[in-house]
Amino acid sequence: MFTKEEIAASYREIQDTICKGLEEADGSAVFEEELWTREGGGGGRTRIIQDGQVIERGGVNFSAVHGKLPEKIKTAFGVQEEDFFATGVSIVIHPKNPWVPIIHMNIRYFELNKQTRWFGGGIDLTPHYIIPADATFFHKQLKEICNQFQMNFYERFKKWADDYFFIKHRQETRGIGGIFFDRLQPDNSMLSYDQLFDFSKALGKNFVPIYAELIKRNQKKSYTLDQKDWQFIRRSRYVEFNLVYDSGTKFGLETNGRIESILMSLPPQANWVYNHQPIAGSEEEKTQQLLKKGIDWVKDLG
Amino acid sequence: MFTKEEIAASYREIQDTICKGLEEADGSAVFEEELWTREGGGGGRTRIIQDGQVIERGGVNFSAVHGKLPEKIKTAFGVQEEDFFATGVSIVIHPKNPWVPIIHMNIRYFELNKQTRWFGGGIDLTPHYIIPADATFFHKQLKEICNQFQMNFYERFKKWADDYFFIKHRQETRGIGGIFFDRLQPDNSMLSYDQLFDFSKALGKNFVPIYAELIKRNQKKSYTLDQKDWQFIRRSRYVEFNLVYDSGTKFGLETNGRIESILMSLPPQANWVYNHQPIAGSEEEKTQQLLKKGIDWVKDLG
Q1: Segment B232-241, tens digit of pLDDT
Q2: CB B176 within 8 A of CB B130
Q3: CATH superfamily of B4-289
Q4: N or C: which end of chain B has fewer CB within 10 A?
């Protein structure tokens, strides 16, 4: 069985690998690092990449924090324990070209005591323009990783992502979803803690190959100013989701996390257009119509 | 004693007056109106002004809604009643020129039954660049209005605004504050319901004269692209406040209000810059340093 230190070390290594891979995929920009410590205990390494050939801004954040759980979170978690340990890697990439999708990944481990320990995380994709073949590729990759660990994971976690990455007040999904899971333990996964740890690492290791492929497919496509404007609108929905619903963001803000690391997920620029309606029959409308739950992307829809 | 219909009619009239006044102050753009009805009961008139000489985008929203209170809000309000009536006027103006401040006003009336009725609202100013003389003018005007009704209102409501318009995770105020009040009743105000209604109307009527003066003072000032960038950053803080903390926004999202009317408060464009720090001694830093609670703006600091 792993220790807290081992899991943190492993996540730190995953951060290194991902940053290296993203720099290669971008081909021009490099990450800048900021080390920070948390007043209540622990700290992290925030790495930001900006103004690249592909990436407009992206962040790959590692943190390992510990301390006392705020009352509000204890209530939300339904626990009595005070002392928590949490470590994880969080990524959000906002690409320059609207044909390249926004991607998010998070893997995390949370521990209150010997009994209360769980893994959480997920990967989801937010294309500004949904390309069915890319969506199918993305979901197939995730399904393959899941299947290496537990045959019901993909179906379960795909549905979970549909429900989680949902902008309720807009009645639309953030993007095409992916997988999402939380509080994963032997009890509810039929896997040992070590296997769950391996699953978590597998997601981390597969992140770059998956995203690099999506970059390769789309980075050279030309785009218009109107398409860039559409990207700014889609990004404003991303902001709405993250600030109104995202539980990682809420957890961070409520545990006095490092603000700039938590809000690195927000885009460099977002626009709100009053009452925006895509033109009938346009690419924008096609994307809008696909922002809903329950689409089976693994069946090729392209 | 006024009826629900009278108060709604009066707020509707205030919306008309304000729109007319803002069109004059802008000098070029005109409002477009959207009438909407709410599934649960009631509706409103949303008016948007865009791409003016002064105003980049602004909204003046009137609504009068009724229906069943969601469980979540009942708990938050600590009430048992189901049926509510709420009417109000809400304004947010995002000017083009960063020297002209963002302004927000809200006046509202809420009724559950004969006993549970209250007025709420406020006016607050969010300058991208704080000009002490303008801040003093703004607060003096608010104090004068307050003093016509109750001598302790300004002090009480100024402090309330400092506490309310506070971006906790940034440990900074949204702007220079103003006044904010909620659940105002005869019990806690020493005024009759009719007097409270008059106070609410007085705020509505004084909105345009106050903002028009601030426009007049600043609209002709030239600005650089760097100053526009600073405006986009200040606007992103505005977005953070509205989506994370603003109770009007939360109430709207949770009662299935009309999304485009609720989120009209969000700016046309907002930028997030990782770890942005104003240059030492710059105008931006001076503003940043004044974003704190407890400044007595009525004492001339200019």
Answers
A1: 999 999 999 9
A2: yes
A3: Coproporphyrinogen III oxidase, aerobic (3.40.1500.10)
A4: N
